[in-house]
Prior knowledge:
With 223 residues, this protein is α+β, with helices and mostly antiparallel strands. It has eight helices and six strands.
Amino acid sequence: MEARCRWGYFWEYFPGQAGGIFKNPALGGSMTLTDTVIRKARAKHTVYRITDGGGLYLQITPAGGRLWRWKYRFDGREKLMSFGSYPDVSLSLARERHVEARKRLASGTDPMAERKAQKAAAEDSFQSIASVWLEHWQDGKSPRHAAYVKRRMEADILPCLGARPIAAIEAPELVAMTKAIEQRGARDIAKRALETTGQIFRYAIAHGYARRNPASEIAPVTF
């Protein structure tokens, strides 16, 4: 009985190679992770893992890190996806991310490739580039003026263009933005919003995020 307690048979787990912990098939292996099991998992001299099912496991590093990982296959290739670290990502949240990723996989989409594409799109979004431009532009400007431009950008420009990849934005989208502002009776603000948008595009072109400035194709009479 002592040996069984020592090796975790009460938890339906047994030690695997290189310190890994796996479900005990002799007892059915039906046990899934709990916060108690995770908190009791101690760092060892080698990396090991405790499993939760469906390819999801928590990797324990010698330094004490607890990292959520999901092993899956796509197009015949084995892949490994990260869901964050414990306790920042709780057991319940890791399971939610696991379920969503498995749904994407079942639909024929590689969830890790999709996440990388989304991250790349976010980095090249208008909002991302506008934030970098603002940091660059406001140097030497009065705090009051910089705050005004930021406020107007957040209120009038980003709701329309923020999520869009900056290189994919076309002139009609800028016209729609300026018309929406003008319809509030704020024609002067609409002109300034277009000017600010043009400055952001010029910055994007200079730093390789875009190839053209659609704001330069629009005159005030256009809207």
